[in-house]
TrEMBL record:
Metal-binding found in the keyword field: yes
Keywords from the named record: Dioxygenase, Iron, Metal-binding, Oxidoreductase
A GO biological-process term: sulfur compound metabolic process
TauD/TfdA-like domain sequence ranges: 5-279
Any one of the GO CC terms: cytoplasm
InterPro entries: AtsK-like, TauD-like_sf, TauD/TfdA-like
Protein name, UniProt field: Taurine dioxygenase
Any one GO molecular function term: taurine dioxygenase activity
Family per similarity comment: Belongs to the TfdA dioxygenase family.
Entry superkingdom: Bacteria
Length: 289
């Protein structure tokens, strides 16, 4: 079967057709898929029909699968798959209701963040529930030369679900068990990281709660906040963004080492539902750019 790759985003993101992910991939097809992943950063496959085992097997092609920090949302048979859903069953959430409804990169709060993330759409709403992506390599390249120079060597402190407001309903003090808190200590990453395969430089700080960026190492609080806010505003420009509109059967894979993303499930109407399976694979410790 011949596969085709077509750009669908303004400067990144592509769709791949001619692939049935429930069947074994030839090495040639896998190589084309993986090169598209590196080149386009976000790749989409339509009209897939996968079992949990088949989705898990495809995920393994991108590296070691790492289960989600919060155990209650893991798939019963394949714990490497995370359940995302705004439905409820027997009075309990079927999955993480509005996972990642803020700009972030998966597992950036860990010493070794995620490499690839993939979502498989089991159920999609008639409208809404899109996922937004930001190209942080393009955002870095667009910075003034002096700003780039000022960022090199800087490090940021990340702490999962950290927020100055200890009463935040999704903050680490309220959401996590003590065991889960112990497993997510503060980590330090470079503000600009070098992609381990392409060599691209990209910004690696995010405003979202799950990233929990506490500040810039060695900077006074006011200076740190101003620097981070400037980077967040720069990265939040439409020129670096792509909006993906889901349909049932889609599989989407993206590279957390050069992108950020934001769900919009929290904005769905009460009668609109989105249910998905998610897989994250382990990357490598970020190398300063």
């Amino acid at each position: 079967m011949t596969i085709t790759v077509r750009r669908i985003g303004p400067g990144f993101a592509a769709e791949i057709s001619g692939v049935d992910l429930s069947t074994p991939l030839s090495e040639d097809n896998w190589e084309r898929i993986y090169q598209a992943f590196l080149e386009h950063k976000v790749i989409a496959f339509h009209d897939q029909a996968l079992s949990a085992a088949e989705f898990h097997k495809f995920g393994e092609r991108f590296g070691t699968i790492e289960p989600h920090t919060v155990e209650m949302y893991r798939h019963a048979e394949r714990p490497g798959i995370t359940l995302l859903s705004n439905r409820t069953e027997l009075g309990r959430p079927k999955g993480i209701k509005d996972a990642g409804s803020h700009w972030h990169s998966d597992y950036s709060y860990k010493a070794v963040p995620a490499k690839a993330t993939m979502l498989y759409a089991l159920e999609t709403p008639d409208e809404g529930g899109d996922t937004l992506f930001g190209d942080l390599a393009a955002a870095y390249q667009a910075l003034p030369k002096a700003t780039k120079a000022s960022l090199h060597g800087l490090q940021a402190r990340h702490h999962y679900r950290w927020d100055e407001n200890r009463n935040h309903p999704e903050g680490r003090w309220r959401l996590l068990t003590q065991t889960e808190r112990d497993q997510t200590p503060e980590v330090v990453h470079p503000v600009v990281r070098r992609h381990p395969e392409t060599g691209e430089l990209s910004i690696f700080v995010f405003p979202g709660l799950t990233s929990g960026v506490k500040g810039i190492v060695g900077k006074a609080p006011g200076e740190s906040r101003a620097l981070l806010q400037g980077l967040y505003e720069h990265c939040d420009q439409a020129a670096f963004h792509f909006r993906y509109k889901w349909r049932k059967g889609d599989v989407l894979v993206w590279d957390n080492r050069a992108t950020m993303h934001c769900a919009t499930t929290d904005k769905l109407a009460p009668d609109q539902f989105r249910s998905m399976w998610r897989i994250n694979t382990t990357g490598t410790a970020p190398v300063p750019g």
